[in-house]
Specification:
The chain has helices spanning 16-26, 65-74; strands at residues 2-10, 34-41, 46-53, 75-77. By secondary structure, the protein is an alpha+beta fold. Helix 1 (16-26) runs antiparallel to helix 2 (65-74). The longest helix has 11 residues, at 16-26.
C-alpha cells in the first residue's frame, strides 16, 4: 500500500467543493489502483488530499480528463 499526501491551497474557493465531488466520481473512482481518497480543509483554507494506492505501479489517475485538468488548475500545491 502506498500513501500519497498532498497539501494545497485553492485560488478560488467558490465552487471548489462541487468540482472536488465531480473529481471524486469522474476521476478518482475510475482509477483502478486507488483504494481510498480523502480530502479535507482546515479553517485557514489549507487543503489536504490523502490517497491510498494498491501499489506504486498503479499510481495513475484515470477518468474524465477535463475534470482532472480543472481540479489540477484550481489548486496550488504546497507539498
Amino acid at each position: 500500500m502506498i500513501i500519497e499526501v498532498v497539501s494545497f491551497t485553492v485560488a478560488r474557493a467558490e465552487g471548489f467543493e462541487a468540482l472536488n465531488d465531480r473529481y471524486q466520481e469522474d476521476v478518482a473512482y475510475q482509477s483502478r489502483g486507488l483504494a481510498r481518497r480523502t480530502v479535507a480543509r482546515n479553517d485557514a483554507g489549507l487543503w489536504i488530499d490523502i490517497r491510498l494506492w494498491a501499489d506504486d505501479a498503479s499510481r495513475e489517475m484515470a477518468g474524465d480528463d477535463s475534470v482532472r485538468r480543472a481540479w489540477d488548475d484550481a489548486g496550488e500545491i504546497d507539498s
